[in-house]
Q: What sequence folds into this?
């Protein structure tokens, strides 16, 4: 958001939340068969081009209904609670910070999607069992409003340590790690940076330095961040937890294009997030769900991902658009944690974080 992302900032998600008709491609239900509905449950930031979806529908014979279920953390929790009687057929938006929780609760049915061999092995975290399919990845980092810092003649922060300096007091907004995947990723990044013995002290200092916690990425980025075009400058926080691929969203549609994006990335604050999709256990239309999973890692959808959801496609052979490569930030060494370490400690970390950051 998926990974990350302002997928709303582009205006693509103007449609109301809830069910929306989309189209799909894949290997079932085509020809003269009557159209069948396949339901995709996802987070609020899911986006895809109409033309891509229309082709998907024509070729497969399936109509896709999209159910948006809030931020990624909230959406995963809802599927766990409805295990065996899911809201839909496929879930998209569970990431590596929450993956073990979803897998441990058995909400997915294994399926090896077509095209999976084009996805790098390091993204296939469930490669032996195929309960989930990698769809995209992004680096969660602190973003900054260039104009704000230039006006103040203040250098933007570059690292976690920088965020503790008095110069940046009351400037940062992050998301709630209990409900938001970017918020959780930022917490995990601090654990990777400071270790089991140091991250709590870090957050106590960050809290003392005025960090604000928003309920979701949309609230943090669009409402509180001063650099958000979608927020029309109403936010007063020049620092926000978002994505290294967020800057292109602020350039999309700008004429003439600027030399650089109006927002930048503090590359010393990044944590890699991988988003997955899976066939839900108890799906009413499992064949349609399999076709939809094939579509999600097909070349056409994958090459649509960067300028729709502002994250990197999972397929190594997917071509990136020029705007994305020119204005996006490349993070060579993002922080990371082993999935088993996240699985073992996530709930305790989040509880401890909540006592510090939300009290």
A:
């Amino acid at each position: 958001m998926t990974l990350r992302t302002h997928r709303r900032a582009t205006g693509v998600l103007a449609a109301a939340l809830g069910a929306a008709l989309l189209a799909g491609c894949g290997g079932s239900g085509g020809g003269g068969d009557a159209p069948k509905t396949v339901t995709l449950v996802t987070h609020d930031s899911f986006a895809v081009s109409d033309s891509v979806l229309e082709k998907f529908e024509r070729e497969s014979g399936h109509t896709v209904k999209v159910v948006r279920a809030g931020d990624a953390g909230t959406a995963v929790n809802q599927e766990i609670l409805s295990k065996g009687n899911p809201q839909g057929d496929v879930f998209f938006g569970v990431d590596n910070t929450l993956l073990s929780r979803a897998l441990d609760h058995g909400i997915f049915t294994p399926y090896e999607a077509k095209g999976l061999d084009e996805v790098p092995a390091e993204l296939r975290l469930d490669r032996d069992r195929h309960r989930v399919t990698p769809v995209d990845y992004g680096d969660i980092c602190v973003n900054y409003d260039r104009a704000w810092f230039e006006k103040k003649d203040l250098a933007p922060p570059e690292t976690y340590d920088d965020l503790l300096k008095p110069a940046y007091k009351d400037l940062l907004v992050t998301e709630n790690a209990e409900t938001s995947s970017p918020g959780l990723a930022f917490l995990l990044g601090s654990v990777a940076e400071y270790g089991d013995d140091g991250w709590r002290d870090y957050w106590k200092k960050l809290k003392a330095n005025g960090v604000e916690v928003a309920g979701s990425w949309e609230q943090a980025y669009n409402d509180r961040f001063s650099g958000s075009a979608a927020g029309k400058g109403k936010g007063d926080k020049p620092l926000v937890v978002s994505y290294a691929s967020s800057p292109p969203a602020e350039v999309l549609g700008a004429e003439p294009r600027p030399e650089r994006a109006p927002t930048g990335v503090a590359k010393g604050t990044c944590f890699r997030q991988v988003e997955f999709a899976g066939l839900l256990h108890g799906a009413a239309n499992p064949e349609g769900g399999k076709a939809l999973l094939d579509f999600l890692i097909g070349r056409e959808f994958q090459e649509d991902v960067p300028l729709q959801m502002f994250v990197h496609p999972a397929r190594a052979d997917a071509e990136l658009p020029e705007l994305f490569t020119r204005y996006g930030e490349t993070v060579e060494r993002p922080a990371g944690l082993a999935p088993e370490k996240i699985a073992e400690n996530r709930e305790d970390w989040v509880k401890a974080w909540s006592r510090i950051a939300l009290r």
Residues 1-35 have pLDDT under 50 and may be disordered. The CA atoms of residues 192 and 290 lie 36 Å apart.
